[in-house]
Design goal:
Layout lengths: L7 H9 L22 E5 L26 E5 L7 H22 L7 H6 L2 H15 L5 E15 L4 E9 L3 E4 L5 E5 L6 E10 L5 E10 L8
Parallel strand pairs: 2-3
Antiparallel strand pairs: 1-6, 3-4, 3-5, 4-7, 5-6, 7-8
Helix pairs in contact: 1-4
Protein name: Lipoprotein
Organism: Actinacidiphila alni
Keywords: Signal
């Protein structure tokens, strides 16, 4: 896929977004889950997907085509404020759309990804993901998201949704053979995401920019 020239901010976001889940590297550290000193190859073990209450489908909610060996867990993605509640819900959809793209090793952007990741940043992010999963890349395991915080961005009406991700039980997988590369849990398995979101004409919150930090100390849990 080719794209038109992107502004500097978008280019930086694209560079930061190189395969954010268990498939491969990204961020300032070139190592990632598939490169620790202790690795083993095993067959994929089915994991039951258990949606959290915040993933309850409402009218017009997206449906994600995730394999049965992927479990997605969201904790705390709810709020008494209706605006924050809606943004948190759509942030969970944005996260799942990334997993869907990676899990299926898609060669083109999925409708769900295009729906929640918009503009030049979204296009660059999609290209960076697909460039690494073309062929036989894939993911498996458990993806745990927690500690979300919603803040208003200046006077624009836009919001930032910052949350943590735990990938200690998430792994890369050869989608052609089903072989899984298990890895030893490490601090690099913790990520902090910062999604900058804007409200669309349809009332949904879409990601127009993002940052992420690998090995985030503020996200590390026992």
């Amino acid at each position: 896929m080719t794209r038109s020239s992107l502004p500097i901010a978008v280019a930086l976001a694209a560079a930061a977004g190189l395969l954010l889940t268990a498939c491969g590297g990204g961020g300032s550290d070139s190592s990632d889950k598939i490169q620790p000193s202790q690795t083993a190859t095993t067959s994929a073990a089915p994991v039951t997907t258990t949606p959290s209450p915040t993933q309850a489908a409402g009218p017009g909610a997206p449906k994600f085509d995730l394999p049965s060996d992927i479990k997605v867990d969201f904790k705390g993605f709810d709020d008494s404020d209706p605006t924050k509640k809606a943004a948190l819900q759509d942030a969970t959809y944005a996260a799942q759309s990334v997993l869907e793209l990676e899990a299926k090793a898609h060669s083109k952007v999925t409708p769900n990804f295009s729906r929640f990741w918009t503009g030049g940043t979204g296009a660059a992010f999609a290209d960076s993901l697909m460039s690494q999963i073309t062929g036989k890349g894939g993911i498996t395991g458990t993806y745990h998201y927690y500690n979300p915080v919603v803040k208003t961005l200046t006077d624009s009406g836009n919001l930032s949704v910052v949350y943590c991700e735990d990938q200690r039980k998430a792994y890369s997988k050869d989608s052609a053979t089903g072989k899984v590369k298990t890895t030893t849990p490490s601090p690099s398995d913790f990520r902090q995401w910062n999604l900058q979101m804007t409200k669309s004409a349809s009332g949904e919150w879409h990601v127009f920019d993002h940052k992420w930090l690998k090995g985030a100390k503020q996200c590390q849990v026992a």
